[in-house]
From TrEMBL:
Domain of life: Bacteria
Protein name: Toprim domain-containing protein
Classification lineage: Bacteria, Pseudomonadati, Bacteroidota, Flavobacteriia, Flavobacteriales
Chain ranges of the Zinc beta-ribbon finger putative domain: 5-65
Domain DUF6371 as annotated: residue spans: 103-250
């Protein structure tokens, strides 16, 4: 018999101000019987590395000296607990594929990369633009059946850096009273590409990283979880028969846990359940303290070294590559991570 919990994080992913970090990244717990928030203080901040605040219903009831009953009674109405997943209409996605000249994320990419590659990537991943004065970037989550499960909205500045604003298309639609409700069930960003490619699948945290790495290293098919805590078995279930490599972001140790250690634990669990999955620790092993403090990801290494073209080492011998390495020692990390070779196909050694 499946247990039905009385309290759960709000499935609509509506964000509130976090009591600890004061960022609008706090998801509250709801009472699944009444569909009301338990308290404005009870919830979890999704800035797991930079904040990590999580005040659970259990702590709330203990602090208020009240009895905590986590399981619903058998008389609870089933339809208040179990709902079918909602989907966006294809027309809604299609109408977002515009205004790229006002989309800061797209403008940043076109200032750094070949415009044709950027356009190809945007077409593959169906990158959209929000139709308001901010022209935020919409990262559509499309499953392997090409159903549109959600649209995550992120605003970027002119330098391609994420701002504080993160929202969902369905949450905006609800606020504007275009729809009454929406049951969000997320999938991996980029999942819809799996049927058209047999490549090894590389999973990163952010959608931006997946987009950048697709243009720089197309040996892999890049997907994103959307957050550090977004890696779970339900999301990777469609990839059961594929080869998977995890590339977590760097980050400082919080309560003796780093992004790598958290994903390593999950990776080991997935292996036991039959997944062909491994995790790359080369960034973890070769990073500096400042790299960890900044929370760099694999795309940051490439963006910092675009002039050296690390995806294709143009040199007939290792001497030129060694000179590159002396100027920027992150080059070796990139070579190790992706097994890069020189123009003749030979292994690069130092």
């Amino acid at each position: 018999m499946q247990m039905i919990y009385k309290y759960s994080l709000h499935r609509k992913s509506i964000k509130h101000i976090c009591p600890r970090c004061a960022k609008k990244r706090f998801v509250r717990y709801v009472d699944n019987e009444s569909n009301q928030y338990l308290s404005d203080k009870v919830g979890r901040c999704d800035r797991e590395q930079n904040c990590g605040h999580h005040y659970t219903p259990k702590f709330f009831f203990n602090d208020n000296q009240e009895e905590y009953k986590p399981i619903l009674s058998n008389t609870a109405p089933w339809n208040s607990i179990q709902q079918d997943a909602s989907f966006h209409k294809n027309e809604e996605l299609a109408t977002s594929l515009c205004n790229y000249d006002k989309n800061n994320f797209v403008k940043f990419l076109k200032s750094k990369f070949d415009i044709n590659k950027v356009n190809e990537m945007m077409q593959q991943y169906k990158i959209g633009t929000q139709s308001n004065k901010f022209y935020g970037t919409i990262f559509w989550q499309i499953d392997f059946l090409n159903k549109v499960k959600g649209g995550k909205i992120i605003n970027y500045d002119n330098l391609g850096k994420r701002t504080k604003y993160i929202n969902w298309v369905h949450a905006v639609n609800i606020k504007q009273k275009k729809i009454r409700n929406f049951n969000l069930e997320q999938c991996l960003f980029g999942l819809h590409l799996m049927k058209s490619s047999s490549k090894t699948i590389a999973i990163v945290e952010s959608e931006k990283t997946a987009c950048v790495m697709t243009m720089l290293f197309d040996k892999y098919l890049w997907m994103a979880t959307g957050s550090l805590g977004g890696l779970n078995q339900k999301k990777i279930a469609p990839l059961k028969n594929r080869t998977i490599i995890l590339y977590p972001d760097l980050g400082e140790s919080i309560n003796n846990h780093t992004p790598y250690s958290k994903w390593k634990k999950k990776c080991d669990e997935f292996k036991k359940k039959g997944f062909n999955i491994k995790i790359s620790d080369l960034l973890e092993q070769n990073s500096t303290y400042n790299d960890r403090k900044k929370g760099l990801d694999i795309s940051d290494y490439f963006i910092e070294n675009l002039n050296t073209k690390p995806t294709k080492i143009i040199a007939n011998n290792n001497k030129k590559i060694l000179n590159m390495y002396k100027k920027n020692r992150k080059i070796k990390t990139l070579i190790d991570v992706f097994d890069l070779t020189n123009i003749n196909g030979n292994t690069i050694t130092f």
